[in-house]
Each structure stands twice: as structure tokens, then as C-alpha cells.
Write a structure and sequence with these properties.
The protein is mainly alpha-helical. The protein has one domain. Helices cover 65% and strands 5% of the residues. The protein contains 6 helices and 2 strands; from the N terminus they run βαααβααα. Helix 1 (10-29) crosses helix 3 (53-61), helix 1 (10-29) runs antiparallel to helix 5 and helix 4 crosses helix 6. The model has no long low-confidence stretch (mean pLDDT 93).
């Protein structure tokens, strides 16, 4: 397993999560599967590109104080990708008439993004680190020193 870290801007990640929460709530209020689908597409495209697109968009519109710390970007990409898959499942469920399942998946993503944005705990990152611990291929990073899996590393 590798414990090398890179510079990660957690302000961009937080802005990304706030956009996901906001757009998911708006999709529900407007009863718009298309908006939920847009969130899914942006999350999945960002995962493939290694970017938090909503967060990067927020950076161009709003002024914010960067929060760049040493961390592993891979768990955050995994988390976003997993959320994107759940959003895609929610969107497909909504278009298939399975509204309870669809909105449940959309709300699950919003709730987990809120837990991360406001509580500082990333469930997807936690899952990534445990998959790495169990030796699952493709999951090789360990949490930065002194960091409990899923929590934001302390600035050192």
C-alpha cells in the first residue's frame, strides 16, 4: 500500500458537495429527473477526469479561501464516482416510474454529501481505505499519518 500524498484543495471538494446537495434538493422540489441526471453526469464525468467539476465551477463564480492540504485524491474520486453511480441509479429509477427508489437514492447522495461537507466525514473515502486494507485491487492508498479513515487530514 502507498502512503504518498498530494496537495488536495478541500475547499473545492466542499463546494462540490454543496452544489450536489443544492441541485439534488432542487431536483426533488421541482420533481425533475433531468436535473438529477445532470448531477449524475457531472459527477461521473468529474470522476473520470479526476476533477470536482461543481467545485471548480464554484471557484470561478465565488471567492473562497483555498484549503490545500496533503491528502490522497483517489478516495475522493472513488467517493464521487460511487455517488455518481447512485445518482445514475436514482435517475434511471425516476424515469422508470420507481419514484420512491429514485428519490431515495438521490436523497442518500445528498445526505452523504452533507455529512462530508458539514460533518467532515466522507463515507466513500472510508470505504476506499477499507477496500485498500482488505487488498482489493485498484485500492492502494492508506490514510495520511494520524488520520482516521474518512476524516479530513489535519494540516501539518
Amino acid at each position: 500500500m502507498s502512503d504518498t500524498t498530494q496537495k488536495v484543495d478541500h475547499a473545492v471538494l466542499k463546494a462540490n458537495q454543496i452544489f450536489i446537495i443544492s441541485l439534488n434538493v432542487l431536483a426533488f422540489v421541482l420533481n425533475s429527473p433531468w436535473l438529477a441526471g445532470l448531477v449524475a453526469v457531472v459527477m461521473l464525468a468529474g470522476t473520470l477526469a479526476g476533477k470536482a467539476y461543481f467545485g471548480l465551477a464554484a471557484r470561478t463564480v465565488f471567492k473562497y479561501k483555498p484549503d490545500v492540504i496533503q491528502d490522497n485524491p483517489e478516495p475522493h474520486r472513488f467517493s464521487q464516482g460511487l455517488g455518481g453511480v447512485f445518482m445514475l441509479g436514482g435517475t434511471l429509477s425516476l424515469f422508470s416510474g420507481l419514484d420512491v427508489l429514485g428519490w431515495s437514492l438521490v436523497w442518500m447522495v445528498a445526505a452523504l454529501a452533507a455529512l462530508n461537507a458539514f460533518g467532515g466525514f466522507c463515507v466513500g473515502c472510508f470505504m476506499y481505505y477499507w477496500l485498500a486494507r482488505f487488498g482489493v485491487p485498484g485500492f492502494s492508498k492508506t490514510p495520511p499519518a494520524g488520520t482516521f479513515p474518512g476524516f479530513k487530514p489535519r494540516e501539518g
